[in-house]
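User: Teach me something about this protein's shape.
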Amino acid sequence: MLKDYVINPGIGIGQIKFGIVRDELQNLIGSPDNIESNNDIEDDVDITWEYQGGTLLFYFDEEDKYKLGGIELENPEVELFGAKIFDLTINETKELLDKNDAIDIEEEDVDSEIVLSIDSIGLTLYYENNELDSVQISPLYLDDENFKWPE
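Assistant: First, the predicted structure itself:
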């Protein structure tokens, strides 16, 4: 089970680093509650490992040789830059990001949901009714197609 919910932008969360394979994740936090497999647009197989009733998701893509390439969280313990971001308003979150030089914030209104995307730190925040609903994190990109995997 995951115990440390501190986001390390571009690196991972807690002791979990992007780029690890499924066996490594299982050794760190145990077996998933559920495993889903889907074909994406390019017919690659995407695998999602679900933990904690679906509130903690880990994404592995065939294109990336099934390395961990994304994490989605719905947990009030998630921390970013020393703040529990589920406790913050959208404006407070923007201030936190700005204070930490994550200034490339793109804001979209999608189907009554506000989405904040910050590519420079591999972070996407989803808000419903002005409350943070979920957080997605990813490694940083070297270019349009390739991740910069943490060491």
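Now, about its shape. The helical segments are 22-29, 90-99. The two ends are 23 Å apart (CA to CA). If you'd like, I can walk through any region in more detail.
User: That's plenty for now, thanks!
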